[in-house]
UniProtKB/TrEMBL annotation:
<keyword id="KW-0408">Iron</keyword>
<dbReference type="Pfam" id="PF13667">
    <property type="entry name" value="ThiC-associated"/>
</dbReference>
<feature type="domain" description="ThiC-associated">
    <location>
        <begin position="32"/>
        <end position="101"/>
    </location>
</feature>
<keyword id="KW-0004">4Fe-4S</keyword>
<keyword id="KW-0456">Lyase</keyword>
<dbReference type="InterPro" id="IPR038521">
    <property type="entry name" value="ThiC/Bza_core_dom"/>
</dbReference>
<dbReference type="GO" id="GO:0051539">
    <property type="term" value="F:4 iron, 4 sulfur cluster binding"/>
</dbReference>
<keyword id="KW-0411">Iron-sulfur</keyword>
<dbReference type="InterPro" id="IPR025747">
    <property type="entry name" value="ThiC-associated_dom"/>
</dbReference>
<dbReference type="GO" id="GO:0005829">
    <property type="term" value="C:cytosol"/>
</dbReference>
<dbReference type="GO" id="GO:0016829">
    <property type="term" value="F:lyase activity"/>
</dbReference>
<keyword id="KW-0479">Metal-binding</keyword>
<protein>
    <recommendedName>
        <fullName>ThiC-associated domain-containing protein</fullName>
    </recommendedName>
</protein>
<dbReference type="InterPro" id="IPR002817">
    <property type="entry name" value="ThiC/BzaA/B"/>
</dbReference>
<keyword id="KW-0862">Zinc</keyword>
<dbReference type="Pfam" id="PF01964">
    <property type="entry name" value="ThiC_Rad_SAM"/>
</dbReference>
<dbReference type="GO" id="GO:0009228">
    <property type="term" value="P:thiamine biosynthetic process"/>
</dbReference>
Length: 248
């Protein structure tokens, strides 16, 4: 009888009807991370390029300075950022993209298949803030790969080179002992990551910078064996529910 009572209670909870008044609008997770601070630094000679890092505060008894780490969390962990999915994120790369041979044009209207041919409450809501998409001009280098093979160093390459040099000076102080006992497996990583080294690795096809011109809001990241990030993975969300805020 005890088991039946527990089963009945569980069935009652599982079959409970969720009312509209009990639902909450999903929100984007924002705010600073505990015991750390988001900071920005600029590459030498490029005050217009702000590269984020995170400094983790260590215990005062350690006598150590804050520990700086790679921070790909974007503006969502910036205490000064105003996040609004209706407006979108600041287009930090807009001026960089306009320096290339591009033009803006009127994109096509959203089609039913873009939303999975759904309707009603399943339809993703429209956004009032829209920007005209970019496209490249014929015969001109546009992508990071095309620019790299044309010998052009882009602002994205300068950005990622600065981020790749995080903590490199401190690592070099003890590198000789580590190299003596280690195996490079063919990797050729210089003591200092220059924008030219980044360009060369992209041109050779040994690294990629995913930076579509129509995603001017993204923070450039390089992926490759000779860089800090080796793998790009997409972690999916719930298969049952998926709002714009939940996906963000």
């Amino acid at each position: 009888s005890t088991w039946r009572g527990m089963a009945g209670a569980a069935e009652h909870v599982m079959n409970k009807i969720t009312r509209k008044s009990e639902l909450e609008m999903p929100k984007v997770t924002t705010g600073p991370l505990p015991a750390s601070t988001k900071i920005y630094t600029e590459p030498d000679g490029h005050a217009d390029i702000r590269v984020p890092f995170r400094e983790i505060a260590l215990d005062e008894k350690s006598g150590e300075a804050p520990f700086r780490v790679y921070d790909p969390s974007g503006p969502y962990t910036d205490a000064t950022a105003d996040i609004d999915v209706q407006r979108g994120l600041p287009r930090i790369r807009d001026s960089w993209i306009k320096e290339r041979a591009v033009e803006q044009y009127e994109g096509r209207a959203i089609q039913p298949e873009d939303n999975g041919n759904v309707a009603g409450r399943h339809l993703a809501r429209d956004f009032g803030h829209k920007t005209a998409p970019y496209r490249g001009l014929p015969g001109k280098p546009l992508t990071q790969l095309e620019c790299a093979r044309a010998g052009i160093i882009t602002n994205e390459m300068i950005y990622v080179a600065h981020r790749e040099n995080m903590g490199r000076k401190a690592m070099l102080e003890r590198a000789s002992m580590a190299l003596a006992d280690g195996e490079s497996f063919g990797a050729a990583i210089p003591e200092h990551i220059s924008p030219e080294f980044v360009r060369s690795e992209v041109a050779r096809g040994r690294a990629i910078i995913p930076a579509n011109i129509n995603h001017a809001e993204l923070e450039p990241m390089i992926i490759g064996r000779n860089f800090l990030v080796k793998v790009n993975a997409n972690i999916g969300n719930s298969a049952v529910t998926s709002s714009v805020e939940e996906e963000v």
